[in-house]
Amino acid sequence: MTTSINIADKCQALELVKYTESNQESYQIRTISVPQPKDNSNDLLVKIHSVGINPFDSMERNGYGHTLLSVTGKIDSELPRILGRDAIGTIVKIGQGKTQEKYRVGDHIWISADPLRLGTFTEYMICTHDECGLLPENYNTKDKWIELTAIPFGMTTAWTALVATGKVSTDRESGLGKKAFLHGSGGTVGLAVISILRYFKWSTIVVTCQGQNQVEELRPLVTEVIDVEEQKEFADELKCTKKGEFDFFLDGVGGAQSEDLAKTILKLNGHFVTL
């Protein structure tokens, strides 16, 4: 079985050399030539075709996670470093470990890169089998790759929030009779959470968002949409009308007000997860 194809010794990458300071657009990014990344026995070397930019990238550009990177020591937390979490690519080399059982050279995959590793803004990158998956057949065409690039990190974040942290059951009809409240659901993660809950047939999904465009996008997908711009007193109303009703509360906003709302509208053994 082919485990690699010939590639150049160096590749182009986009690296961050300076964080944003005092909320000013003073960050610096540059294009550089870097040696091809080195893999180990369980890694995949991937040629990147398209990458996505999500809110986490902007946060990381502003210095988010710098302390965590320093503590873990998994990668050099000092600048410069390559950012990026989402990508679509083609496997060009496979290690000798268990990765060979699932993937082949030439497979097209999505990537949701571990924030503690170097990112996707490069021509070639190393990833583990835990950070990627095969593209679905109906989307495995070049004209769909750019569209797909917006999904991986948001979807894996949603799955982690629901299943790993929120203990949502993955039985196909486990959501029958259950109610979820999603606070701040207009972005990629929120849409992914809604898709997963719908797949598991959750009976009631109530979401908050901001602005008419998000309302129109979400309305066909959920039970109820609350526009926080129009319904500024929604939290007080919910505390009166929905006390102890929900099995799951996902907080995409943060802060004491969200926690206070969750305490009131969640059932006694309900799950609260904050992003």
From TrEMBL:
Gene3D superfamilies: Medium-chain alcohol dehydrogenases, catalytic domain, NAD(P)-binding Rossmann-like Domain. One of its GO terms (cellular component) is mitochondrion. Residues 41-136 form the Alcohol dehydrogenase-like N-terminal domain. It holds the Pfam family ADH_N. Signal peptide: none annotated. PANTHER family: ALCOHOL DEHYDROGENASE RELATED, RETICULON-4-INTERACTING PROTEIN 1, MITOCHONDRIAL. This is Alcohol dehydrogenase-like N-terminal domain-containing protein.
